Amino acid sequence: MCPNTIAVAMSGGVDSSTVAAMLRAEGHNVIGLTMQLWNQRRLAGHTGMPESVQGRCCSLDDVYDARRVAETIGIPYYVINHEDRFEQDVVRPFVQEYLSGRTPIPCSLCNNHLKFDQLLTVAQQVGADAVATGHYARVEFGEECGRWLLKRPADRSTDQTYFLFGLTQEQLSRTLFPLGGMTKPEVRELARKHGLALAEKRDSQEICFVPGGDYKNFLDAYLADQGESMPDTAGELVTTDGRVIGEHSGIHNFTVGQRKGLGVATGSPLYVLQINGEKRQVIVGEQERLYSRTLFARKINLISVDDLKHPMQVSVKIRHRHEAAAATIEKTSADEIVVTFDEPQRAITPGQAAVFYNEDIVVGGGWIS
């Protein structure tokens, strides 16, 4: 049975708006909350940055849409400003990771270190028993293990559990994912039935603070906004046997698996195999060398178990769109797990997350080192 008073995290999109409408229709006391995380006009006018950022996730348009939905369904609505915390916990680490040669996932950082933590705090302050979001996932209490479980949604094509691996037992116990059993078309149809004007609103696929997904221009603009210059991360293009075959303009311009933009011509295609941030080297080689059977993950969060005392057979995702692959996970230290895949996986990338699954259940996850 759901709590009576529920705070809904309203992003201004169709998913969270539908959650608010359906919970209201079920008779719950619903409170709408929107987190203002980033001033979308802040970097407008900097070289390479668009003047207009309308229609993007977390924009002022989204705040307006969320407020309009709240008025339509008749619920109180609040906007909470967490721009400073977002910049500290998400934007700055995003910039620092790229400059060190890693490829970050800001959405996971945001969920793990900001959104759920702050939403649950504010929900308690306004008298709500739980927070509901529009994520496609499921949460339930496992009687056998005595723990709250994060599970994949019924529709695997909408699965967002990869971005939620950092949720704690306390957070899961007070979080609802009402869309976990629905498909996206069903959600849009429900939005229409509730008379929501944004039932046809397009989903945003971009990082909320990086217009057009152009992170390179964003890095330049953000550092300029901070009064900082782009650090010199230029260096050498090196083969796996140590031969220098060229130079590059900065390690932040590359990610593991990249083929285009290397700036060198050889007899066969070359791919980025590794980025050595300390030496500012980009190691390149043939595609076959992109495949590996092992990775190490740190800053581990376990969900379905309280500890990993023995090796466990699981399936592991190394990117959001990666098909989870069979593997064994084994604890190597208090905060490190080694993942050994049954079959080699392509382009295991430092900075991304490795998320462990036991069928539909999220065992936990960590950050690829």
Main attributes of the structure:
7 helices, 369 residues, 6-stranded antiparallel barrel, Rossmann fold, Elongation Factor Tu (Ef-tu), domain 3, 5-stranded parallel β-sheet, alpha/beta, SH3 type barrels
Sheet having the most strands:
6 strands, antiparallel, barrel
Number of helices: 7
Q: Secondary-structure element sequence?
A: EHEHEHHEEEHEHHEEEEEEEEEE
How would you classify the helix and strand content by structural class?
A: alpha/beta
Spell out the CATH superfamily of the largest domain. HUPs
Radius of gyration: 22 Å
CATH topology of the largest domain: Rossmann fold
Oligomer: single chain
Describe this structure in words.
This protein has helices spanning 14-25, 60-73, 83-99, 106-125, 169-173, 184-193, 215-225; strands at 5-9, 29-36, 77-81, 130-132, 138-142, 147-151, 175-176, 235-239, 244-248, 271-276, 281-285, 291-302, 312-317, 325-333, 336-346, 353-358, 361-368. The model has no long low-confidence stretch (mean pLDDT 92). The protein has three domains: 5-134 and 178-215, 3-Layer(aba) Sandwich (Rossmann fold); 232-285, Adenine nucleotide alpha hydrolases-like domains (SH3 type barrels), CATH 2.30.30; 291-368, Translation factors (Elongation Factor Tu (Ef-tu), domain 3, Beta Barrel). It is α/β, with parallel strands linked by helices and 369 residues long.
SSE topology sketch:
Layout: E1 5-9, H1 14-25, E2 29-36, H2 60-73, E3 77-81, H3 83-99, H4 106-125, E4 130-132, E5 138-142, E6 147-151, H5 169-173, E7 175-176, H6 184-193, H7 215-225, E8 235-239, E9 244-248, E10 271-276, E11 281-285, E12 291-302, E13 312-317, E14 325-333, E15 336-346, E16 353-358, E17 361-368
Parallel strand pairs: 1-2, 1-4, 2-3, 4-7, 8-11
Antiparallel strand pairs: 5-6, 8-9, 10-11, 12-15, 12-17, 13-14, 13-16, 14-15, 16-17
